[in-house]
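Bit of a strange request maybe. I'm writing a small parser for structure token strings and I need a real example to test against, not something I typed by hand. Could someone generate the tokens for this chain?
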Amino acid sequence: MTKNYDLVVIGSGTAAMVASHRMASAGRKVAVADYRPFGGTCALRGCDPKKMLVTGAQVIDDVRRMTGRGVVAEDAQILWRDLIAFKRTFTGPVPGKQERRYADHGIDAYHAQARFVGPNAIELDGGDRLEAQHILIAAGARPAPLGFPGEEFLITNAEFLELEELPERIVLVGGGYIAAEFSHIAARAGAKVTILQRGGHMLPHFDADLVGWLMEKFREIGIDVRTRTLVEGVEKTDRGFLVRARADGGQPVTVEADLVVHAAGRIPDLDSLDLQAASVERDGNGHLKLNEFLQSISNPAVYAAGDAARMGPPLTPVSSHDAKVVVRNLLDGNRHRPDYRGVPSVAFTIPPITSVGLSEREAREKGLKFRMQSQLVPNWYTARRVAERVYGFKVLVDDETDLIIGAHLVGPHVDEVINLFGLAIRHGLTAEDLKMTMFAYPTGASDIGYML
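Reply from user aminoacidic:
Good idea to test on real output. This should exercise your parser:
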């Protein structure tokens, strides 16, 4: 059976939801298709459920830091099964709410795998054929293939967030957001955690100096971080798993584990779409070839947004922004380009580490003239009040314009404070503008003037 639409959206995450609702509100006939539960990675398998687990770990960290400082809570612990049950009070209703919202907006929603069968057509695994003036690929991302024997034994981030019980020994393969955040959660829940990272340091997308300061926290809570260590295979044993790796100098490394987690990056989830049938081209890295309007270069009927587009950072706010740009281009013609200035990034370790704008290295490579303030300041009130030893910053200001060009923070409340630096970068506020702003005191934001 063939059905016709103005727009068909592949996926049901943030980008898909924003684009489909806006197009339907503009009077267009819209359909969405997703083989997974409606809601996408952020709401179901990523940001939101992860942050709920982080909250439990944060309470444990608060208690431990404040013990001996007027707080007594000797029995404080995470009951993993109960924490997961609490998380499900959020994630459980999401697919049903999404489906009702689609129905309320007059959007046809299909629970099915989609694949292209023509430049303007997709076929669903149930047999329906959907033809549309335009098709938006908003299919999200999936774990990157690892290419070593035994990779099938690794669980994904989605499976970790559904664990009924937390095993005693956990190995995380990779050293980015997932490894950093999940290790902080698991260690505070009582697991013995090992991270095997092929790169020279954890969290390569964040400032290396600040990552170095944060590593004190990894050591404090007993996380065994082994950098420059390449995993070569995973074997199943009678006691669990044996992870075989090789250190930078060639020395063999073996780690026993009850659970091995894939934390080595994600790639756009495109392989099942049969892009060739729609003449949608990909580059040498497997990413879609798009123009500045988020439109396929080889098939003007197809657009992409979010992780599928991979034009901006792979973050939820970027997915929403991309979707808004695509809709404006569909309604107005190609006149709108995405603007990724001032997009903050946060790894929700405890304490969190954040970044926005240029790094010190990027600023120097661009030949910019800038002044930089960088300090580790555990003696500042913001850190002392909560007995946190990790608190520091690096802020870059253009010498000629006084504009903020980069900010990098680690410590208490920086996941909120970084947004003010993002606001400054996106809207052209100067360092003097921030210094003259009267922030509520005492708050993390009230430290900004001293960082400039």
